Hints:
CATH class of the largest domain: Alpha Beta
CATH architecture of the largest domain: 3-Layer(aba) Sandwich
Number of domains: 2
Strand content: 15-25%
Largest sheet: 8 strands, mixed
Order of helices and strands: HHEEEHEHEHEHHHEHEH
Oligomer: single chain
Amino acid sequence: MQPINKNSYISKHIQYFFNKRFLSKGLGVISAVLLLLATLIYFYAPLFIIEIKNPVIETARTCLTSEHIEQKTDNKNLINFYWQGTGEVELNADLYFAMRQPAKATLILLHGIRSHKETWQNIVRYLQQQGFNAVTVDLRAHGNSKGEYCTFGYYEKQDISALIDVLQKRFHIHTPIGIWGHSLGGAIAVQCLAVDKRIQFGIVESAYADFAQITQKYSKDYLSFEATSFNEFLLERAGEIARFNPTEVNPQDYAFFITQPVLLLHGTEDKKINPANSQKIFEALRSSHKEIIQIENANHYDIWQKGGKKLHKKIVDFIEKSLIVS
């Protein structure tokens, strides 16, 4: 029987003890990291969908360049005002009066996501010159409006109905009402047309047809791989946090209930929202007077510039024709 080497025996036990301790610490660190990751995914990741003023993405609030945004200080026919939307959220808008009164109609203009009402300045001036009032809106959680989350039309369409009440009662505007929305604003405009028949016509620009599909597309763009189940989870959590149902904000579904005149606009080179989205909305519309125009070489943001005077005239012609057939 070989004698026991006490030094070797003690050394092995010490090594075993330290390996076990380090292994335990390593597992603890891994567990902590996984717990932190799960917490971030569960509580924080959904905010990238609904929280517009998130500090991490604050720098991306508008994708428009300065050449598309002009100051409104020189426009004298302007009233800035607040009104209360759903849940008593304080919302902000600018009311611009037509250069010639009485106005032919009043158009409510809705911006895209992480943008603001000032992006409409060029179009506002043109509409005023053509004899139309214009109301530019900061959607909830955007610009000067209050509200914690964007709900992609779930509450916003009720906000716009409340706005129409204000225009008629506070400002005594009784012209025909139209709505014009870009991107997210276009998606909301479709929902507004379906639920509030006081809106007599609509212009829907660069809008998506299906909310889940467009968020899936953006997720794939950012993550560089398909993550359908993950996206479904994020949408469900976003809905829980902001208290809305993500399955009830699909413009294509609402289009079936629209009978008012609608003009759809989309750039052929739109990489953010494929022009096929407008086609889906167009096909679902029950309007007897509906048109769709694809603007050659235009992307998501420069339809007005690329379309030029020819498009400007087509839009005015559509509005004036809508006032006759409505």
